[in-house]
Amino acid sequence: MGHSSSRHNALAGAAGDGQPPLPSRFSRFRTRLRLRRRDRAAAAADCSESGRPAVAADEFAGIARIRIVKADMRFKDKFFACLSLGERTYRTERSDNTHKPEWNSEKKVVIETNGPHIARISVFETNRFSKNTLVGYCEVDLFDLLTKDLEEEHIEDLALLDPSSSTNAVGTISISCYIEDPVETEQSFARRVLAIVDYDEDGKLSLPEFSDLMKAFGNGLAVNKMEELFRQADTNSDGIVDMDELAALLADQQEKEPIISNCPVCGESLGKYDKINDMIHMTLCFDEGTGNQIMTGGFLTDKQASYGWMFKLSEWANFSSYDVGLRSGSTASHILVFDRRAKRLVEEAIDGKIVLSMRALYQSKVGLTLINTGVKDILKNLSEKQGKKMNSPESAKDIPKFLDLFMGQINMDEMKDPIESFKTFNDFFVRQLKPSARPIAYNDQDNIATCAADCRLMAFSSVDESTRFWIKGRKFSIEGLLGADAHSDAFINGSLVIFRLAPQDYHRFHVPVSGTVEKFVEIPGCLYTVNPIAVNSKYCNVFTENKRVVSIISTSEFGKVAFVAIGATMVGSITFLKKEGDYVHKGDEFGYFSFGGSTVICVFEKEAIQFDADLVANSERSLETLVEVGTTLGTSKRNRELQVPDLQKCAVE
Prior knowledge:
By secondary structure, the protein is an alpha+beta fold. Helices cover 31% and strands 25% of the residues.
C-alpha cells in the first residue's frame, strides 16, 4: 500500500535534471523515527557511562494506523481483542465461535516522541452476562514496528502470553501498523472541513464559501483577514481554493498563526499541547464523530472494555463508574492508576465486596461512629490474628490462590527464589527479587532521588497541595505525621511523596536517597486501610492515626529526609534492616512489610527536591502513578552547579 501524495511526487519529479528526487514527508517522518530509536539507545549508554544524555531526535507527532487482523488460539470460543495505548482503550467486535478469530479492525492513534508508544493487545473469551475472561495478551513497542524498512503494509505475528505465566504462549495474534502520510492526514481533514461549506459540491471553494468557512471557525482574526487568507491559499491564482490548497493553508496557519481556535467536533481549545499537532487532533476527532474507524472507543482500560451487559447496566444505574480523579479514587467502584513504564491507565484489582465494605466504613458518618466505638480495636486484633496465621506452615497453601487472584500482576520471573521454597505465606509475601530486576537509576549521582517501593505514587510540593488533591482526613499535618520526637523545623512547609503498596506488590522498601540514618521513632496507632477510599475520606486520619515507624536520614544533597513506614489493615509488623548510625546508599534495601497493604511517606525539607514532571502532573489530576523501585523520583534543588541530566529523555532501560 503506497502512502505518498501525487502533489509531493510531482514536486519530487520537478527536482530532476540529474538531481535525486526530494524525499517525501512520509519518508522524512520515518527517518526521524529511526533517529529517535538510535538516539534513545545512545542516551541509555551515555547515561550508564557518563551520566550525560545524548542529543535527542527532533520532536514529532503523527498518526499510526493499527489494524488487529486475526488470531490463532488453542481452543474454540467467541473472542474479541482490545488495544490499549496511553489513556485510551479500544475493542473489536466479537468473533464467531472459532479457534481462528478474524477481526480486521483498525484504529488511528497519535504517536509522539515522548508519548505512549507501548501498546497492549488483550484477547478475551466472551461471557455476555458478566465480565469476560482474559485469555492472552502481548505488548508491542510501536516504534519497533514503525521503523522497520517496510514500505508496504506489513502483517506482524506476535505471541499471546498466558496471563498466569508470561513464559507460556496461548496463541498468536496478527497485527499491522504503519504511519499515515502527513499529507494524507492534512487532506483527510481538509476534505471534511471543505464539505461543510462546499454548497455546489464541486470540491472547491469560492471566496464566499471560503468566507463562510472562516466564520464557522469562530476566529475573529481569521474573519478580518479572509481575503488575505484566500489569496494566500489560492497559490495558482485561479480564483478558487481546491482541497490541496486548503490543506496546505490549514497546516501552515496552525503552526504559525492558528485560524481554528477550538476543535469543531469536541470543542477543546487548540494550541495548548506543543507535542500534538492540532491537525492530528482534529482529524482523529472527525474520524470518531463520523464512525470512520472500526474499533469501538470510549474505554479507559481493557478491563473496562471487557465487562458484559450486567456491568453496563450497573453503570447506567450509577452503581459503578469509571473515571480518573479524586472522586473516582474515593467513591468509584474501580481504582485507576497510570503505569509509568507502559504510559497507560491500568485498573487495580480489588474485590467488589471489599469496596462496598470500605465505603460503608470510611465514607459515611455511620462508619465514623463505628470506628469511634470499637472498630479500631477490631481491626487491630484482626490484623494481629491474620499475621500469626500467615506465619504458620498451613498458610503456604494460600499462595496459589493469591497468585490466581492477582493473575498477570505478579512477575514470577523476577523472584529470587522459586515458589516451592516458601514455607509460609509471609515468606512469599516478603519475597526478594533478583538483583537485576530493579536497577537503580543514576546510581552514582546522589543528587537524583529514586522511588522507594513498587507502588502507586503521589508527589506534592506542600501539605496544602496534598490536601487539595488527595488527603482528605481531618487536620492532616507533617507534624502530626512525624510526631513530636521526629518532627523538626526543617520539615515545615516541606514536600512529601506517598508510596502506596497494594497486596500484589513487592513488599520490600528501599532507601530513596544516600545519607546517614539518624534515628528511628516508633509511633503506636490504628490499622486503617491505606486504600484511596479511606485516604480520600474526610471522616478519618489514616496517615496520622495508623501505626508507623519514622526514620530520619541526613543527606548532603537534600538535607534531612523523613522516611515514614505506615502499617495498615492486615499488616502486623514493619521490619527495618538498618540501624541508627548506618550509612545507606540510595537503592539499598531498607526493610519490609509483612502481609497486607501498606504505605511509605517521605518528607523532604522545603525547596529541597524537584519531583519529576510526570509524577507531579498525574498527582495534580488526583491520579496515582504506578512506579517501581529505583526509577527516578526527582532531583535536588541544591548544588545547582552540578550537571543534572534530563530525566525524561535519558531513560534507564
